[in-house]
């Protein structure tokens, strides 16, 4: 699948429990010999069918979330700053939510490292108070989808 046979929109790479994980990142080094986000960026630009595929940095949410590869959020912030320099960078994935929740300050540190673009602005949200009461009609692939009436379009499956 990674040989270009499938057009991915995003991939979530586990940068822990392996030798090329977060612990291999060398702050300030011109070339990262083992931390291989650059390899994934190259794959995104040269092999992937979708040249706009986003690569997510997979991190353990606490020291007990993975066998190896956890780094404290202050060190992770430097790694995030580095990977933000790649056009394929899509964001951060953490394993798992319960570990992040128990790791005080971790999520806030990741959010700060990602920058203000990761904040949610409800000003344009049509239904911020009760999503269940919202009309769920939407556009998918530039085509209108009416969830209330379960419409079909073209040869596509039910939306």
TrEMBL record:
Keyword Acyltransferase: no
Keyword Kinase: no
A GO BP annotation: carbohydrate metabolic process
GO MF annotation list: chitinase activity
InterPro entries: GH, Glyco_hydro18_cat, Glycosyl_Hydrlase18_Chitinase
Region (Disordered): 117-159
Protein's name in the database: GH18 domain-containing protein
């Amino acid at each position: 699948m990674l040989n270009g046979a499938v057009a991915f929109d995003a991939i979530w790479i586990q940068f822990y429990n392996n030798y090329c994980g977060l612990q291999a990142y060398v702050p300030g080094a011109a070339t990262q010999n083992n931390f291989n986000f650059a390899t994934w960026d190259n794959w995104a630009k040269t092999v992937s069918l979708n040249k706009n595929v986003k690569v997510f940095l997979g991190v353990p949410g606490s020291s007990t979330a993975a066998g190896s590869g956890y780094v404290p959020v202050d060190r992770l912030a430097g790694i995030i700053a580095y990977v933000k320099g790649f056009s394929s960078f899509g964001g951060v994935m953490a394993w798992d939510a319960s570990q992040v929740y128990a790791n005080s300050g971790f999520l806030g540190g990741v959010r700060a490292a990602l920058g203000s673009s990761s904040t949610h602005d409800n000003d344009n949200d049509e239904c911020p108070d009760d999503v269940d009461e919202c009309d769920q009609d939407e556009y998918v692939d530039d085509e209108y989808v009416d969830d209330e009436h379960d419409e079909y379009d073209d040869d596509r499956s039910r939306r």
